Amino acid sequence: xxxxxxxxxxxxxxxxxxxxxxxxxxxxxxxxxxxxxxxxxxxxxxxxxxxxxxxxxxxxxxxxxxxxxxxxxxxxxxxxxxxxxxxxxxxxxxxxxxxxxxxxxxxxxxxxxxxxxxxxxxxxxxxxxxxxxxxxxxxxxxxxxxxxxxxxxxxxxxxxxxxxxxxxxxxxxxxxxxxxxxxxxxxxxxxxxxxxxxxxxxxxxxxxxxxxxxxxxxxxxxxxxxxxxxxxxxxxxxxxxxxxxxxxxxxxxxxxxxxxxxxxxxxxxxxxxxxxxxxxxxxxxxxxxxxxxxxxxxxxxxxxxxxxxxxxxxxxxxxxxxxxxxxxxxxxxxxxxxxxxxxxxxxxxxxxxxxxxxxxxxxxxxxxxxxxxxxxxxxxxxxxxxxxxxxxxxxxxxxxxxxxxxxxxxxxxxxxxxxxxxxxxxxxxxxxxxxxxxxxxxxxxxxxxxxxxxxxxxxxxxxxxxxxxxxx
Length: 472
Hints:
eight-stranded antiparallel beta sheet; four-stranded mixed beta sheet; 4 helices; 30 strands; elongated
């Protein structure tokens, strides 16, 4: 007997937090088409249970065009008023031409594995009263709780804040993120364990793995498979906030099993099963969807990170110290956290190869030695600057405070900056992230700034900032 899942539980608003963005934007619309108010969803005397939060790397507090509805840079997952989880129930072996007829029941969740043109396996899922399900993907359909688009990595220097693959000024490149990329199942009872699975159910509550998809029968006679570009997960090797150290990137299957990476991202041959690792998310787990990387933070881990109010206090403390340009002697000031992309005239700039902080100046360009520039009149400029304090040559960029608190590893003072982008945060945060290789393309990995996605450069990928105090 197959039990039908609850369609009411698929409406996401009561369990998804619309967290205020770093930049000032209009209130986000409801996540569901229903016009009914959500007052009273949770009993007033009880605090709603938060499973954790997902943060998209490469966005410094909000998407480039602002957070709107289910498309945002950060989302909290709360316990739903009514469970909407599902679990495997019945397996059917059917003729492939009859699959569409077998999947006609739109109130029943199922996964279809096409083994050949004549043979398919359908696994029906039944309602699970003990779990909540949250789906992530590129699709804007209502069954997707968190809409994620491609993040531009290693593109340009400076603030940027990350760029989405949709909603930009021009035509975006074809996305590599699946419309129904993955799903997270959270246990409704303590300790509220969260587990991740590749692929999400579509509007017909189906997951379809075609003939070319990597799939196989397991030793116990069940089915499993991988999505086209895969869902990669890396759990931290130690405690994310106390001893940050990168783990090993693995691939998660449709049924939540853990495998070594394939030779290339979309290869049909799966990697080796890793039996001593699980799909259970922990504080600091990274989820890569081939186009965007998400960070999972637990409520316990988030207690170690600064809030927006605390970040604003740190900014004011920096400015209260009245740092000065050692050459122009003008007072420098970090701009408001809400200010994005526009460089303020008092904004501090840094030579990323030495860490000396200055005000902006348009001199000090390094000239190429050797061949003449255009027209044969003078050597061409390299775009790098020579620091007037120590004469070291390197990029010269504005400093921006990292205002996505969930990416911090502690609430320490903002004394360091990532190279070469200039995002400022605590020493522990820059040291931790500079050790983490993030996926890029089909098989490349590179450490990057978590606030903007720029690839890190230099020996360490970060620099200690050297401020000069007021002379009076």
